Amino acid sequence: MKKTLIILAHPDLTRSMANKKLKEEAEKNTDIIVHDIYKEYPNGKIDLEKELNLIKETGTLILQFPMQWFNCPSLLKEWIDTVFMAAHFTESGEKILANKKIGLAVTTGAPKEVYEGKLEGILAPFVLSIDYLNAKNIPIFSVHGVMPGKISETEIEENAKKYVEYLKNNIE
């Protein structure tokens, strides 16, 4: 079984409540690699060869990020544009992401009610990209209302455990 690769894209993980806890719980599983692209690329320059080798070695790919104005953080967008393009349009014709499972794990500051019935629409460009790559979409994992004072440590811990279950259930 190949490992699951989490592309973690949080611009300031030190100030995060939920994403930091999700990362910590995921890292307890030896079948999961957490790749923090903001830590890896503080200058924003992505090492394409390194990224392609990393995704070649893994089975399931999860994009984990906090929603920012109904989108992903800018470095994740750059990562997707760079890596997905190169993984799909290789000189050899190999489609590196074809048939891999790809999922989204998002956190939002706003409560769930704000996103009720809308999250899938907001994330549609990601889902369409995964489809275009001939990859397999897996369900979206989401945690809402993660602003300080709106979510308790207990709720964050419960969601982190649910995240690990989500990952285990979707590993290739």
From TrEMBL:
<dbReference type="Pfam" id="PF02525">
    <property type="entry name" value="Flavodoxin_2"/>
</dbReference>
<dbReference type="InterPro" id="IPR003680">
    <property type="entry name" value="Flavodoxin_fold"/>
</dbReference>
<dbReference type="InterPro" id="IPR029039">
    <property type="entry name" value="Flavoprotein-like_sf"/>
</dbReference>
<dbReference type="InterPro" id="IPR046980">
    <property type="entry name" value="KefG/KefF"/>
</dbReference>
<protein>
    <recommendedName>
        <fullName>Flavodoxin-like fold domain-containing protein</fullName>
    </recommendedName>
</protein>
<feature type="domain" description="Flavodoxin-like fold">
    <location>
        <begin position="2"/>
        <end position="167"/>
    </location>
</feature>
<keyword id="KW-0560">Oxidoreductase</keyword>
